[in-house]
């Protein structure tokens, strides 16, 4: 036993404060203290440039065209999809901006202290999948750069994989190299990412503008109609539903970011001006620009290469094949910029955000950095080279996760605005027994689970049809075509209704007491925590009591 205790003690995360880490708390999960609130409006602008102006955002517009839409119809999907997405994002991220707590802490309020593990695991799986997808695209960019310098050597790398895998030996090698490049960046804590954001966002903007100018200036015969439209004939009804599906796919492409945007807004210096307004403006603009650029660049280069190449690194590889040393030089710099773009989205959006979520599973033994390492290692099992093999599969992947993420977002928004009335008792987020008003029943808020599965249920059949060859009814497909809005709305309303019919009395008493006292809503999270705990340590508060369970 003594040996086991010493081993477990050696695995505990290093203390960064007076309080010891325990099951419910470590430094990365606490409210952000003022010295670490370093994100101003510029940082959020730069963040959303990186989140949206990457390969996944570039491919969205082109994939919409491949689904049967004309280019201007795809643009409509991008515009309306982003307007809806920024609305959901703003609603969900406001609590983090004011209370300076992230997704792992907020889901405890909505799901219960133990129930929050369900929400965490779901979000962790998304981090793994998206890291894998973005890392694979990043690996292709590494391949562009290496092939520009060593064309003969790269082409001579043996391929141990069968054709059915959708990749070769050189691509897999570059995929691993890209992931290794990401590892050192996990040592940068989110509040110190300002310089990183500034450099990456400038490189990304210049690169996409340069690629658009190159594509338009060197195109042959004008914008290729085959890239701006398809031969798929759609009836008016089918067209309307395809547009709805495209809008949902646009939201789905950023649904994971909408769900855990609190992990970033918690670092805001001031909530309204720095986080909320800057995001509301930058989010839709950058996503629209990169989607439109993707459509125009693909259309301008289709005639030259004989096909619509909607993946930027594959387009650069085609340019290398068709040109000489000058083409290799230009594609090297473009490839490098796309590497920066993929790092810019993958490190903060998947490694860091996912790392915090993993840390919340075992705070005593896992911190943000260790969680990021686990995300990276597990992501190899996702087989991203198959997810991105065709545009239709890619579009299905974007939309599919919305079925599960939209109800989670909806119930979190209803919890904050309608149930908690924007009053959080921050100290109770770190207490794992009946003393916490967020303990519910054995640590689980059953109302949240009912709301979640109610939001998922209408779309689950259509989800199966979208990601597999199984044929489903037209009604199921139609419901799936509006999956995000439908799931969000159902979960929002049912969660609210269940808390009205089956209220948590301790929460109601806390909210009424705050209202009687005239306490301002959206108190600073750290100040509220310190006031509520009255200088007690987390370790003292977290000791379990032998008490009966709440209803």
From TrEMBL:
Keywords linked to the UniProt accession: Membrane, Transmembrane, Transmembrane helix
Bilayer topology: Multi-pass membrane protein
Transmembrane parts of this sequence: 71-95, 170-188, 195-219, 239-259, 280-300, 336-359, 371-388, 394-418, 439-464, 484-505
Compartment(s) where it occurs, according to its Swiss-Prot or TrEMBL record: Membrane
Gene Ontology CC annotation, any one: plasma membrane
Domain of life: Eukaryota
GO molecular function: nucleobase transmembrane transporter activity
Family: Belongs to the purine-cytosine permease (2.A.39) family.
Full protein name: Thiamine transporter
Species of the source: Postia placenta MAD-698-R-SB12
Organism lineage: Eukaryota, Fungi, Dikarya, Basidiomycota, Agaricomycotina
């Amino acid at each position: 036993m003594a040996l086991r205790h010493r081993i477990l003690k050696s695995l505990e995360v290093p203390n960064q404060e007076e309080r010891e880490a325990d099951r419910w708390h470590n430094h990365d999960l606490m409210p952000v203290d003022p010295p670490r609130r370093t994100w101003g409006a510029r940082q959020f602008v730069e963040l959303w440039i990186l989140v949206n102006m990457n390969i996944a955002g570039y491919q969205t517009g082109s994939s919409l065209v491949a689904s049967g839409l004309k280019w201007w119809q795809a643009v409509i999907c991008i515009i309306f999809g982003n307007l809806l997405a920024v609305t959901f994002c703003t609603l969900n991220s406001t609590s983090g901006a004011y209370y300076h707590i992230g997704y792992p802490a907020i889901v405890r309020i909505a799901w219960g202290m133990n129930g929050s593990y369900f929400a965490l695991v779901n979000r962790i799986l998304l981090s793994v999948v998206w890291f894998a997808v973005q890392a694979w695209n990043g690996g292709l960019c590494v391949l562009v750069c290496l092939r520009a310098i060593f064309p003969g050597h790269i082409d001579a790398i043996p391929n141990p994989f069968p054709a059915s895998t959708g990749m070769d030996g050189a691509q897999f090698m570059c995929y691993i190299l890209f992931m290794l490049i990401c590892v050192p960046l996990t040592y940068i804590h989110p509040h110190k990412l300002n310089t990183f954001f500034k450099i990456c966002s400038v490189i990304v903007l210049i690169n996409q503008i340069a690629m658009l100018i190159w594509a338009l200036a060197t195109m042959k015969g004008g914008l290729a109609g085959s890239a701006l439209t398809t031969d798929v004939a759609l009836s008016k009804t089918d067209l309307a539903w395809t547009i709805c599906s495209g809008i949902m796919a646009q939201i789905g492409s950023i649904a994971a970011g909408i769900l855990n945007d609190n992990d970033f807004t918690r670092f805001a210096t001031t909530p309204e001006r720095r986080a909320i307004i800057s995001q509301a403006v930058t989010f839709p603009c950058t996503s629209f620009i990169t989607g439109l650029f993707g459509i125009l660049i693909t259309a301008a280069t289709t005639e030259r290469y004989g096909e619509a190449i909607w993946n930027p690194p594959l387009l650069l590889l085609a340019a290398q094949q068709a040109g000489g040393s000058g083409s290799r030089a230009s594609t090297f710099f473009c490839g490098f910029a796309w590497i920066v773009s993929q790092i810019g989205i993958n490190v903060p959006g998947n490694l860091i955000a996912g790392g915090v979520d993993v840390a919340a599973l075992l705070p005593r033994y896992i911190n943000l950095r260790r969680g990021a390492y686990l995300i990276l290692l597990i992501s190899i099992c996702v087989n991203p080279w198959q997810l991105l093999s065709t545009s239709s599969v890619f579009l299905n992947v974007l939309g599919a996760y919305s079925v599960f993420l939209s109800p989670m977002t909806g119930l979190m928004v209803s919890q904050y605005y309608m149930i908690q009335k924007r009053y959080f008792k921050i100290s109770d987020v770190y207490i794992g027994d009946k003393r916490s008003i967020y303990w519910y029943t054995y640590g689980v808020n059953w109302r949240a689970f009912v709301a979640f599965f109610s939001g998922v249920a209408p779309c689950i059949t259509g989800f199966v049809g979208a990601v597999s060859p199984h044929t489903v009814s037209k009604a199921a497909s139609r419901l799936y075509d509006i999956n995000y809005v439908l799931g969000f709305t159902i979960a929002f309303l049912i969660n609210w209704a269940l808390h009205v019919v089956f209220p948590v009395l301790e929460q109601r008493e806390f909210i009424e007491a705050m209202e009687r006292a005239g306490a301002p809503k959206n108190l600073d999270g750290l100040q509220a925590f310190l006031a509520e705990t009255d200088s007690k340590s987390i370790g003292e508060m977290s000791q379990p009591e032998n008490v009966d369970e709440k209803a």
